[in-house]
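Margin note: ligand = thiamine diphosphate.
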Amino acid sequence: MEKPGEQAISRNELEGFDKTLLLRFYHDMLLIRRFEEKVAEMYTRANIGGFVHLNIGEEAAVVGSVTALEPEDYLFSSYRDHGIAVERGAGAGAVMAELYGKVEGTSKGRGGSMHLFDLQHRFLGGYAIVGGFIPIAVGAGLSIQYRGGKEIVMAIFGDGATNIGTFHEALNIAQLWSLPVVFIIVNNQYGMGTQVSRASAVTELWRKGCAYGMPGERVDGMDVVAVRRAVDKAVSTVREERKPVLIEEVAYRYRGHSMSDPARYRSEEEVQSWKQRDPIDNLARRLVDSGLASQGGLEQMEQGVEQEVQSAVEFAEKGSFPEPSTLRDHIYAGEEDR
Ligand SMILES: Cc1ncc(C[n+]2csc(CCOP(=O)(O)OP(=O)(O)O)c2C)c(N)n1
Ligand SMILES: [Mg+2]
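Resulting structure:
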């Protein structure tokens, strides 16, 4: 039963966000959820190989962060990148094809799950080394500054990455040289099987920016509106003042670290307690309560999303595997090195 005053609260929470944008948030989060569920299914059926890390549970963090960027901005992410690439515009079909190892994929079938890449949408990867790409994102910021550009860079990584040396080196240089980078930590509580409190001396991870005089904040990563509000603020600081900001989005991954992780290091009660705050259900309830959408309208949107995911699978299945003769194409080594 709804408590008195709840509607007014939901309206207030959604203030400043128009209906079109809120419905887009709902659509995009649902698309990521259904896409990832399909990836899990296709992995189990051995249509997808290698390692696969899903964004399920982190949809609000992905959508609230990535939608705050302009098309000319640059985006980097860890290997947990399917939802991020889809949200940036790479296309569910091209991302699925990459997971299938097909030439129609974002990296011509050579990268797979952890190495999605889409230059056209300025999504510069997909990196498998924890924390390894954070200095590369800072390098992109330096390049923008050097050219006198107006773009900014966003780097999205996990809680575990904040314990890696490169994170600290990157934050230091970004602040020292006033580089236009939004650093986003998706704190999903674990780095593989290790809880944040067992790996990090400081558990409010955004505070790590204080060591470098970098402003930041922590936000509820299960609430897409809260995420987008915080990231909007960070993006405008970075864009206008040309200096970095660190945001921590507190979320949870519902599945194991990768498809091969049975997640025995946490209790079912813990997982269920986070699912109570599911980002998609949470937004659906607020949309309906505030009269911005009807239950029927949301169900119709869900059918459309399922169709989009089905089309992505068909696109991937119709695609072709790279010809063995092209094995040495698209690599850095020159002709003389082959
Ligand atoms: C430098 C490095 N060390 C270890 C690993 C193995 N490894 C892969 S993912 C991972 C956990 C990272 O956790 P986090 O940064 O919180 O990201 P999440 O997977 O939770 O999104 C580890 C230790 C790696 N890929 N790179
Ligand atoms: Mg983590």
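The chain is about 45% helix and 10% strand.
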